Amino acid sequence: MKAKSLFLMAAFIAGAALAEDHRQLATLPPAAQESLREEMLGNLLAINEVLTLMAAGKVKEAGQLAEKALGQSAQGKHRDKPFNARPGPHMPPAMHSIGNDGHVAASEFAKAASSGDREKALTLLPKLTEGCIACHYSWRTR
Ligand code: HEC
Fold first, then answer.
1. 109 pLDDT more than 90
2. Category of 86 on φ-ψ map: left (φ > 0), alpha (ψ -120 to 50) or beta
3. Which residues constitute the domain of residue 108?
4. Residue 135 domain-assigned?
5. Terminal-residue alpha carbon distance, the chain
6. Is 2 helix (H, G, I), strand (E, B) or coil?
7. Can you tell me which atom of ligand 1 is nearest the CA of 95?
């Protein structure tokens, strides 16, 4: 199948999914939601920077950034905030574990890239967005 028709199919499926939202609702306190939103924008920026570094052949740098910003090293960044501003403890366990798995997956990519193994890093590149898709397609907060 050509890339364009794959894209159209994906857009169609996404449209159908959103028309009737079957995702589960997780109710987070407003402060936790705000912390989450901030983290999410940082995630998006980090992914773009990792991709930019990979495209420039800076594989090790891409790995280091991925680990720091998206991998297991990025966990616990809300630890020192007041309880109601920490997203993790307010998530249903199933949602929280998707988040944790996402950090583990990002670290798998980061480990390969940090070693400078470009081929392996490219193979594991989709690991960076695995968790994003898994959570966003299952959970919503409003
Ligand atoms: C465990 C679940 C979970 C994971 C994993 C997750 N997200 Fe999110 N994301 C959310 C939720 C929930 C919101 C909505 C927050 C809110 O209430 O505004 C959100 C919001 C966002 C937003 C919108 C921010 C805005 O401007 O309002 C972006 C962009 C985003 N996520 C990107 C990502 C990326 C990129 C990843 C992967 C690196 C990711 N997310 C992983 C749950 C998740």
1. yes
2. beta
3. 29-140
4. yes
5. 36
6. coil
7. 1
